[in-house]
Design brief:
By secondary structure, the chain is an alpha/beta fold. Helix content is 39%, strand content 14%. The protein contains 17 helices and 12 strands. The chain has helices at residues 2-20, 28-43, 48-61, 67-83, 92-98, 186-197, 222-239, 267-277, 283-292, 330-344, 361-373, 445-451, 462-465, 473-485, 487-497, 508-519, 523-531; strands at 132-138, 205-208, 244-247, 295-300, 303-307, 347-351, 378-383, 390-395, 403-409, 422-429, 435-443, 456-461. It has a 6-stranded mixed sheet with strand order 3-2-1-10-11-12. Strands 4-5-6-7-9-8 form a 6-stranded mixed sheet. It starts with a helix and ends with a helix.
Length: 534
C-alpha cells in the first residue's frame, strides 16, 4: 500500500502540475505517464469515497498543497474529475493536450463564415480634436470579505490575511489597504469605488471583465458563489447608478472554479446572476446569457457590444473533453452577430474574461480566424484574467506582418499576488468608436499602508509615455518592434506590466517570453514565437 501511495504521489504531483499550471514545465510524456498511473488506480478502486480518500492523501504526502487545502479542494473537485478526465473513453493525450502539456489539443474543428471577407479598408486615424467619451475598465476584483487587518500575511495556504491564519508579526501583518499575498480588502474596495464614483468626468460605460470572489478555491458552495457575485454586483450598481455596466463572467465566478459545463448544466449561476445584471442587459441579451453566459446588444447607434464566455475554453475546464466543438454554440452565434453588424455598417467591441491566447487548440485559433475575418468590424477587444497590464496583437492570416487588431488586457484591482491595485480608462473617438488613449491608474500599496492614505495616480497614458502616433493596431505593432531594440523602453513597459512592483531583472529569455506574449494571439503562435531564435 505504501508503494502504491508513493507512486500515486509522484504521478499525482505531475498530473496536477500540468492541469493547474499550464506551461508549468511538465513534459508531454511525463503528463501522459502520470495520467495513466492515476487512471489505473481509479479504475481499480470502487466508489467515489475511496477515490477522494486516496486523492487527499496523495495531495498531502506529495505536498501539492497545504493539508487544509487538500482536505478542502479534493472533495470539491473530485466528483468532477471522476466525471470528466477519469471517465470511460477519455485518453491521456486529450487530458494533457487540454492542459497544454501536449501539442495535440482535443479541440479540432474550423469555423465557417456566411460571406467571403470583403476587401480590407484601412482605418482612418481619428482627428486629435474630434469629440471623445471615456470608458472605465475594471477587472479581477477578487474581493475578500474575510480579509482581516492585522492577520498573518505569510501563511501555508495559497491565500492569507484572514482571522483563521492567526495574528501577524513584524513585517507579516495585514495592512488596512491590502497585502501582496492577499486579495482585495474591504477598505480598498470601498475606497476604490468611492474614488471612481467621484471622478470629475464620469465614464459613459463600465467594462467589468470578471473574477470577483477571493482565491480560496478549496472551500465554498454554489450558494456562496452566487452570494459573492451578487455582493460585488450590488456594490457596483450602488457606486455607479447612472453608468451603463457591461459585464462578463470570470473563471472564478462559478463553482467549483473553472467549471463551465455545456448548457443547461450551468444555468444555476447564469439565472442567479441575471437577478442583478438584468438592469444592464436588454431582453435579448438576457436570453442568450441565461443559456450560455454570453450576450450582445447595441450600445448606441453604430456600436454593438459582444460579451463572450471564454471560460469555456479554459485549460482547466475539463467538460471540454466531452464536446469541444463550438461550446454552447457561441462561436456560430458570434459569427452571426458580426456578420449582421458588418451588413448594417456597425462597429463592434468584444469583451470577455480570458483572452483568445488563453484558449487552447481550435478554440483559440478559431477566435483568431473570426477576428481576422471581421477585422474592419471589430474596433475594440477588452479582457482581464492575467492581473497584469498587457496588450495582445492580432495579425493578418494572409500577411503575418500586417497588424489587424489590438486587445487590451486590463490589470487587476486585487493585489494577489504581488500587484498594486489598478484600473484603466479609455478615451474613445465618438465617430469611429476607436480607442484613442489608454490610461492606467495605480495605488502604491506600500505607501498606502505606511501613510494610511491610498491614492490613485496616473501611472501612464499609452500614446504619451510610449510616444505613439496613435493607438491603431499598426501603432502597437511598431511599439513591439521598438521594445525589441530599446532596453530602456522595454524596462518601462515591463514595469507597467508588473504595476510598478519591483520584480527583479528580466534576462534575455524573460524578455523573449514577454515580447512573444504580446505578439502572439494564440497558444500555437506563442509556442512558434518562443521556438524562433532572435
Amino acid at each position: 500500500m505504501q508503494k502504491l501511495i508513493a507512486t500515486l504521489c509522484l504521478s499525482g504531483f505531475l498530473l496536477v502540475s500540468a492541469i493547474r499550471s499550464p506551461f508549468s514545465g511538465v513534459t508531454c510524456d511525463a503528463c501522459k505517464a502520470a495520467f495513466k498511473v492515476v487512471k489505473l488506480a481509479v479504475d481499480n478502486n470502487v466508489g467515489e469515497e475511496e477515490f477522494i480518500r486516496i486523492a487527499v492523501e496523495v495531495c498531502i504526502v506529495a505536498k501539492i498543497q497545504d493539508p487544509t487545502v487538500c482536505r478542502g479542494i479534493v472533495p470539491l473537485m473530485g466528483p468532477e474529475l471522476l466525471t470528466t478526465i477519469f471517465s470511460k473513453g477519455v485518453t491521456a493525450e486529450q487530458v494533457c493536450g487540454l492542459a497544454k502539456a501536449c501539442p495535440t489539443h482535443p479541440s479540432n474543428w474550423t469555423v465557417t463564415f456566411p460571406k467571403p471577407k470583403p476587401p480590407h479598408v484601412p482605418p482612418v486615424r481619428p482627428n486629435a480634436t474630434s469629440p471623445r467619451y471615456q470608458v472605465l475598465h475594471l477587472s479581477d476584483i477578487h474581493f475578500d470579505p474575510l480579509y482581516t487587518v492585522g492577520s498573518l500575511t505569510k501563511c501555508p495556504d495559497p491565500l492569507c490575511c484572514r482571522e483563521s491564519d492567526g495574528p501577524g508579526g513584524n513585517g507579516t501583518s495585514a495592512g488596512l489597504w491590502g497585502d501582496f499575498n492577499c486579495d482585495t480588502s474591504p477598505a480598498m474596495l470601498q475606497f476604490s469605488l468611492k474614488y471612481l464614483a467621484s471622478l470629475p468626468e464620469q465614464p459613459q460605460y463600465l467594462l467589468w471583465t470578471g473574477d470577483n470572489p477571493p482565491h480560496d478555491v478549496w472551500r465554498g458552495s454554489r450558494d456562496e458563489a452566487i452570494g459573492r457575485l451578487r455582493n460585488v454586483s450590488q456594490l457596483l450598481a450602488a457606486a455607479f447608478p447612472g453608468m451603463r455596466v457591461l459585464p462578463a463572467l470570470g473563471n472564478h465566478d462559478t463553482f467549483p472554479v473553472d467549471s463551465f459545463p455545456l448548457p443547461p448544466a450551468n444555468s444555476w449561476i447564469y439565472s442567479a446572476v441575471l437577478e442583478d445584471w438584468a438592469q444592464w442587459l436588454t431582453p435579448d441579451a438576457q436570453t442568450t446569457f441565461a443559456y450560455g453566459g454570453y450576450y450582445q446588444m447595441l450600445l448606441h447607434k453604430g456600436l454593438r457590444l459582444v460579451s463572450l464566455n471564454t471560460n469555456y475554453c479554459d485549460g482547466s475546464n475539463f467538460w471540454l473533453l466531452f464536446n469541444s466543438t463550438d461550446p454552447a454554440g457561441m462561436y456560430t452565434w458570434f459569427i452571426n452577430v458580426l456578420q449582421a453588424a458588418e451588413d448594417a455598417g456597425e462597429k463592434v467591441w468584444v469583451i470577455a474574461h480570458e483572452t483568445p491566447g488563453d484558449c487552447g487548440g481550435a478554440l483559440g485559433e478559431n477566435l483568431n480566424r473570426i477576428v481576422d475575418r471581421y477585422e474592419d468590424t471589430i474596433v475594440g477587444q477588452f479582457y482581464g484574467h492575467h492581473h497584469n497590464d498587457q496588450f495582445l496583437m492580432f495579425y493578418s492570416l494572409e500577411n503575418a506582418t500586417r497588424a489587424t487588431s489590438i486587445a487590451y488586457v486590463s490589470p487587476s484591482i486585487t493585489t494577489f499576488s504581488n500587484k498594486n491595485p489598478q484600473y484603466r480608462v479609455y478615451d474613445v473617438d465618438v465617430a469611429s468608436s476607436q480607442v484613442v488613449e489608454s490610461s492606467t491608474y495605480n495605488v502604491d500599496l506600500l505607501q498606502a499602508n505606511a501613510n494610511n492614505a491610498p491614492e490613485f495616480y496616473l501611472e501612464y497614458a499609452a500614446s504619451i509615455d510610449y510616444q505613439m502616433e496613435g493607438l491603431l493596431p499598426e501603432d502597437w505593432a511598431q511599439l513591439i518592434t521598438r521594445l525589441q531594440s530599446n532596453v530602456t523602453l522595454f524596462n518601462q513597459c515591463y514595469s507597467y506590466f508588473n504595476s510598478e512592483v519591483p520584480s527583479g531583472p528580466c534576462d534575455a529569455q524573460c524578455r523573449k517570453g514577454f515580447i512573444c506574449s504580446l505578439n502572439a494571439a494564440t497558444a500555437p503562435l506563442y509556442a512558434a514565437c518562443m521556438a524562433q531564435s532572435h
